[in-house]
Amino acid sequence: MLWLLVVAVAVGQCAGKDLVQTLVSDPQESTLVSLVTKAGLAPALSTGTHTVFAPNDAAFAKLSQATLDSLDAHPDDLANILKYHVVTGSVMSADLRNEETVTTLNGQKLRVNIYSHNHAVTVEGKKVIETDRTADNGVIHVVEDVIMPPSGDIVDIVAGDSRFSTLLTAVQKVGLADALKGDPLTVFAPTNDAFSHLSGTELQRLLDHPEYLKEVLTYHVIDHTL
């Protein structure tokens, strides 16, 4: 009888909490709670049904101070990033499918990958380290990194990183830019340093033979995400 009473008390402590209250009760989610409050998202997460991919305090600690300061100074950007972690509806881990995309509150999509060999689940490449923490109005899955919304396609990302200037030139030379803006892809992108390991003869051969260069570049691309 005493055992039943203890169980009943424990269940009572877990019941009756919305998503925000559930996050507040977790000491490892204090940063997320603070940012949700600052961005004015607490009311939205307290009503309706949602799934939250929740970065823990350790995840936020990985961000640079410059990034944190920028988010603090730009509440709209902060809200956009936080909304990118929230999906309408209650999505349990058993509901997730490999290569599935789900639409977030900021209108952008999250890609889910499931790896059968080690049972790992990732969202936009960020590992889910705890699943199915339920609240009265949804479910929380804890992720080990903050998920930043994409700011462009693959070509935009390559163009915005000086380490890939040689790759960008090669892609543009053979007309692959449009192909890299399409369906979900994975690119194993050689840096400028990687190209520098080619001999002068090898590099010149690539530049002199566009079809061969295109073949080499497409060998670095697969037609799905990893």
UniProtKB/TrEMBL annotation:
Pfam families: Fasciclin
Coiled-coil regions listed: none
Signal peptide: 1-16
SUPFAM superfamilies: FAS1 domain
Top-level taxon of origin: Eukaryota
Keyword rRNA processing among record annotations: no
Keywords associated with the record: Signal
InterPro entries per the UniProt record, alphabetical: Adhesion/Biosynth-related, FAS1_dom_sf, FAS1_domain
Name of protein: FAS1 domain-containing protein
Organism: Batillaria attramentaria
